[in-house]
TrEMBL record:
InterPro entries: AraC_E-bd (IPR010499), GyrI-like (IPR029442), Homeodomain-like_sf (IPR009057), HTH_AraC (IPR018060), HTH_AraC-typ_CS (IPR018062), MarA-like (IPR050959), Reg_factor_effector_dom_sf (IPR011256), Tscrpt_reg_AraC-type_HTH (IPR020449). Keywords: DNA-binding, Transcription, Transcription regulation. PROSITE patterns: HTH_ARAC_FAMILY_1, HTH_ARAC_FAMILY_2. Residues 6-104 form the HTH araC/xylS-type domain. It comes from marine sediment metagenome. GO terms for molecular function: DNA-binding transcription factor activity; sequence-specific DNA binding. PANTHER family: RIGHT ORIGIN-BINDING PROTEIN. Gene3D superfamilies: Homeodomain-like (1.10.10.60), Regulatory factor, effector binding domain (3.20.80.10). This is HTH araC/xylS-type domain-containing protein.
Length: 281
């Protein structure tokens, strides 16, 4: 069975020469826009629409090398309606304008993005992903640090945890010693909010530095992450590419949680780490 990322890539490769939206790709993949943005970013290292743009412009660059067509013709074939729009996008992608590239047309001078190759029969054996347990999660109030990330800045999330450490245990009405990483509010460009926080019993005098988030009661599929916290991306990837295609439950558009339990050791980065995926029955 082709997984959702494979279906998304297939659709993009068949249609990137025409106008397509994130909603189109999401429908083809079988996921909501929110979950496609998360899954695709984890798998490909870039957002869906950044990949679409990169593929359009990479194929356009190949045409500029191999064909004598005018730049406007190449632009129209890549889905751009004007020379100016194509030039802006091309320079943003490759650091050079199409006219400059045409004077020295060599694919070795720019970074071409080739199609993602998918093997739908091969699973990531480096990640021992056990089947999830289902829980009925109560409504929660989370207070913590919030920052918005894109597919390039997401590597900075660990530094957000470093900044939040001093707040743990010092937030009014904190419940227990469990910390959460909450992913929510993504957009079509792949930007997403990440909140490093703790659960509180009620909001009281949240400072300007901290933000609050109400999470509704929700059913979750809970996966245990084995290994160092720095490798949690492997578990996220396995969830979306291995578990999701065969799951009898569908993920719903609600905050996704990383839960760092009382057994998590902040010094070693190991122990009691779970990923909570909101699902509908």
């Amino acid at each position: 069975m082709m997984n959702p990322i494979g279906r998304a890539v297939w659709y993009i490769e068949m249609h990137f020469g025409s106008e397509i939206s994130l909603a189109d790709v999401a429908q083809a993949s079988g996921l909501s826009k929110f979950h496609l943005v998360r899954a695709f970013g984890i798998y490909a290292g870039r957002s869906v629409m950044r990949y679409v743009r990169a593929r359009r412009l990479s194929e356009a660059a190949k045409r500029l090398v191999m064909e004598s067509s005018g730049i406007l013709d190449v632009a129209l074939g890549a889905g751009y309606n004007s020379h100016e729009a194509f030039t802006r996008a091309f320079k943003e992608q490759f650091g050079i304008t199409p006219d400059q590239f045409r004077r020295n047309p060599s694919l070795e001078t720019i970074l071409i993005v080739e199609p993602i190759k998918m093997d739908n029969n091969e699973k990531d054996t480096s990640t021992n992903l056990s089947g999830p347990r289902l829980i009925e999660g109560d409504a929660m109030l989370i207070v913590g640090l919030k920052k918005r990330y894109d597919d390039k800045t997401g590597v900075q999330m660990p530094s957000q945890w470093q900044a939040f450490q001093a707040h743990i245990g010092n937030i009014d009405n904190q419940k227990g010693d469990v910390a959460f990483g909450v992913l929510c509010n993504s957009d079509d460009d792949g930007n997403i909010d990440y909140i490093t926080g703790v659960e509180v019993s009620r909001y009281m005098d949240v400072t300007k530095e901290l933000d609050g988030l109400r999470i509704a009661a929700q059913t979750y599929a809970v996966f245990r992450h084995e290994g160092h916290v720095a490798e949690i991306g492997r578990t996220w990837k396995a969830i979306f590419t291995d578990w999701l295609p065969e799951a009898e439950y569908k993920p719903v558009d609600a905050p996704q949680l990383e839960r760092y339990g009382e057994g998590f050791n902040t010094k070693t980065g190991i122990g009691d780490i779970e990923i909570w995926i909101p699902i509908g029955k």
